[in-house]
Amino acid sequence: MAQDWFLELVKGTGRLLLHPVFYYSLFLAALFGVSRVKRERKNFTVRSEDAFFELRQLFPVGIVIGLVISLIIIGAGIVLPFAAIVLIAAATLLWSFTARLRLLAPAYTVGAAFFALAFLSGKKIVGDLFTNLDEKIYPSIAILLALLTIGEGFLILKNAKKGTSPKLIKSKRGQTVGVHEVKRLWLVPAFMLIPGNTLTLPFDWWPVFTLGENSYSLLLVPFAIGMQQQIKGMLPREAVQQQGRRVIGLGILIALIAAIGYWYPIAAIAAVSIAIIGREALTLLQQMQEENRPFYFAKKNQGVMILGILRGSPAEKMALEVGENITKVNGTYVHDESSFYEALSRNRAHCKLEVLDTNGQIRFVQRALFEGDHHELGILFVQDEKKWG
Fold it and tell me: Which segments cross the bilayer (predicted)?
């Protein structure tokens, strides 16, 4: 019996890979990867990461978070109607057409599905999809929203700091300055408990089990979660982690309010409303704080600041970091990109750098240079006006 159930579960999971959000997310990640590479080549003539970078970030951490959410959902017996799953997928596709990845946050996709389900409940649309819905589904959707928001925060905290993309823009004074941009898409596959024979009617192979007098199906759902953030006044790692912690805090608040919804249904509505308003407020807060900060990656009177480092380059092997300021090259003071490369060219076999790190401490870095090494060490700077207009 247990073996039969396991085999049915594996078959059901395999067929679930036909979920449209799964393939659409692959397409979006590839599209944003190609778009990023084109922009970076326009700014620097090279790209910081290859076009497959976004695709490589799509799954690993999301699978772990999806597993945790699955255990909570199944362990707590939280049941969601198939209609909610359909509406979440529809909202994901709809918001993606805006090309603003931040709108793929759970607050917007699950939140939109929540209110759409409340509006469509009882209406005979698409067969019986929206009829006979239990009121207890609304706190369950709010709990799912809270769990996905907490998961979003952990994704931002642990993954979004990797491979932030350097970018050149014009300041209000017309000067060329550097910023870092994060456009990231993750897939969080999680098992959902679907009530009754909703799935077994069209799919006679779908596994069903019973708890007490009720029967349920397990459905593996790929939830797409997006993030978009431009950073100008802080180190990218610090800015992204700050936002991640804030999103986790919002998710915990939503969970506490949503749990009350099982006794007082109005609390579920309040939880989802707070999720949407709170997530938008966090974005606006981050943007306002950025506007009030001076540009971190701007030209300095002394030294040249590292805006980006190419993967596998000599600079990466020398443990140079984004945000550090190179003051000397081979014993010569440098003040811009041109003087940096002029000093570097004086000794093509070896380079010694004096670096002011992000904590304001001076350190010395040196390395032998070999044939085949990147001729510019693999460092991206805020470029001269004549090189980028």
Answer: 20-37, 58-91, 103-125, 137-157, 247-277
pLDDT at 299: 82
The β-bridge relationship of strands 208-211 and 304-305 is unpaired
Cβ-proximal residues to 273 (8 Å cutoff; 6+ apart), any chain: none
Single-letter amino acid, residue 368? A
Which numeric CATH code is attached to 304-381? 2.30.42.10
Confidence of residue 296 (pLDDT cuts 50, 70, 90): very high
Per-residue tokens: 27: 């397409």
| DSSP character at residue 297 | B
pLDDT given for residue 298 in this prediction: 87
Q: pLDDT band at 128, cuts 50/70/90?
A: low
Strands laid side by side in the 208-211 sheet: 165-170, 176-195, 214-231, 208-211
H-run or E-run covering 215:
strand 214-231
Residues 6+ apart with CB under 8 A from 134: 81, 195
CA 307 to chain centre: 21
Which helix (DSSP H) or strand (DSSP E) does residue 188 occupy? strand 176-195
Establish how many alpha carbons lie within 13 A of residue 274's alpha carbon, considering only the half-sphere containing its beta carbon.
Answer: 21
Task: Say whether pLDDT at 183 is over 80.
Answer: yes
Pairwise CA distance, residues 243 & 108, whole Å: 17
> Which pLDDT score, from 0 to 100, does residue 181 have?
95
Report the distance separating Cα 10 and Cα 4, nearest Å.
10
